[in-house]
Write a structure and sequence with these properties.
There is one protein chain. It contains 1 helix and 4 strands. The chain is of the alpha+beta class. The protein folds into 2 domains: 34 residues; 35 residues, no CATH class. The protein has a 4-stranded antiparallel sheet, with no helix packed on it. A hairpin with a 2-residue loop joins β1 and β2. The longest helix has 30 residues. The protein is rod-shaped.
Length: 70
């Protein structure tokens, strides 16, 4: 009787572990890369800034605030 419970327990644990492994792989493939929204910039010195993509941009001071120069 003990052997039967031991075998049944091992089968249940193995099936759970196999199921978890397969589910996590399929979830990773379905999601794909995360999208990043880019808004704004960081001022590094007067007239220069860095946007969220890491590119250096020119800044112009208008009404006391820096804005991206065009």
């Amino acid at each position: 009787m003990k052997k039967m419970f031991l075998i049944a327990g091992l089968v249940m644990v193995a099936s759970v572990l196999i199921g978890v492994g397969n589910r996590s792989i399929s979830l990773l493939e379905a999601d794909g890369p995360a999208k990043k929204t880019c808004v704004g910039f960081t001022v590094i010195e007067a007239g220069k800034g860095i946007n969220c993509y890491g590119d250096t941009i020119r800044l112009a001071k208008r009404n006391g605030f820096y804005t991206a120069a065009k």
